[in-house]
């Protein structure tokens, strides 16, 4: 049995992952988020611990992280770099090594063409945080998997392809269910994709911007 910590546990992808882990594995979960009452439906489950906390409170984060085997981060925002520093500091304090980290397309200047130019403008406020976090991960000693999704949809489908950090990003969109599915794969085989940055998109969705915009 593995104990998994999910930081930012109320995120859309995180909630899909939580439900799949509970349905398909015997893993124990530590769900860490602000306003923990938002996940009150999990409080009564024996395999789940729901903790209220701010990821920038490194001491509280480390205390919650100490007993786990793997950390999954679903945090975001314009202060992502500060949150990433806190996560890495807590991992150093607790000697945690395995991290799955949700980032975004563009974190490595890897999105080509008109879509890349549009994406730079569309998420201009957030890209500095993604890019600083990518540098922090690469300069750390943790065995991270940085997951860079395309623009996210709520489609109930699992349909995706992967690219490396050295390859141009493909496609424009991907479902949260697909991202959660890839996370499930890494959790099942944590020896894979170590110290790697992985782009994830739905095949055949190339264009100048996502289809609904």
Automatic annotation (TrEMBL):
Residues in NAD(P)-binding domain copies: 8-190
Stored InterPro entries: NAD(P)-bd_dom, NAD(P)-bd_dom_sf, Polyketide_Oxido-like
Pfam families in the cross-refs: NAD_binding_10 (PF13460)
Domain of life: Bacteria
PANTHER family from the UniProt entry: FLAVIN REDUCTASE (NADPH)
Protein name: NAD-dependent dehydratase
Organism of provenance: Lactiplantibacillus pentosus
């Amino acid at each position: 049995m593995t104990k998994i910590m999910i930081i930012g546990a109320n995120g859309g992808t995180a909630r899909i992952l939580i439900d799949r882990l509970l349905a398909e594995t015997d893993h124990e979960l530590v769900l860490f988020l602000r306003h923990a009452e938002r996940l009150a439906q999990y409080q009564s489950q024996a395999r789940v611990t729901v903790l209220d906390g701010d990821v920038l409170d490194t001491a509280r984060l480390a205390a919650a992280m100490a007993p786990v085997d793997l950390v999954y981060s679903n945090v975001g925002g314009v202060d992502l770099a500060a949150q990433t520093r806190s996560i890495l500091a807590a991992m150093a304090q607790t000697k945690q090594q395995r991290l799955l980290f949700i980032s975004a397309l563009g974190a490595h200047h890897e999105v080509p063409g008109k879509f890349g130019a549009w994406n730079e403008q569309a998420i201009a406020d957030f890209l500095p945080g993604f890019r600083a976090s990518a540098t922090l991960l690469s300069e750390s000693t943790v065995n991270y998997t940085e997951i860079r999704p395309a623009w996210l949809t709520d489609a109930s489908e699992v349909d995706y392809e992967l690219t490396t950090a050295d390859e141009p990003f493909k496609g424009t969109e991907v479902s949260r269910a697909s991202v959660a599915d890839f996370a499930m794969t890494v959790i099942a085989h944590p020896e894979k994709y170590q110290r790697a940055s992985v782009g994830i998109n739905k095949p055949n969705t190339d264009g100048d911007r996502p289809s609904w915009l």
